[in-house]
Amino acid sequence: MALINGKSFDWSDVNIVLPNLNVEVQEISYDDELEKELTYAKGNRPRGYGTGNYKASGKISMLREDFNEVLNYCKKNNTTLFKLIIPKIIVSYANDDQPIQTDVLPECSFSKRSTGATQGDKTLKVELDLFISGVIESNGVSAV
Questions:
Q1: Cα separation of 13 and 24, whole Å?
Q2: Quick one: DSSP state of residue 99?
C-alpha cells in the first residue's frame, strides 16, 4: 500500500448493531488469539506444536450520553447491562483511494464497566470491556 505523507488509514466507522439503538463509539480496541504450545520429545528441541483454544476480547469507550442510551435500551428491553447481547459490532475503515476494510465482532456482551471524572473535564466517558463469544472476521475471513 502506498503511503502519502505517512497516512495509511483514517479513523473508522464503528456500528453497534441493535434494533432501535444508535450510539456512537469514541474508541474501540480488540484482539484475538489462538493458544499455541511447543511439543517436545527426545532432546531439547521442539518437535512441533499443538494448538488450544481461540479467544477474543475488546474494549470500547463512549460518551456518557451514549452510555445512558444503552442503559435506556436495556431498561426498555427488560435486561441488564451485563446480560445485553450485541449480535455484532461492525468496524469499517479505509483510505480515500482504497476499498473499505471491515471487521465483524460477533456475539458481544459487556463484562466490565469503568467510569471516572476529574476536575476540568469537558466530557465524561465510559469504558466497557467486551466479551466476544464468536470468531472475529476481517473482510469475511476468520483467523481460525
A1: 9
A2: P
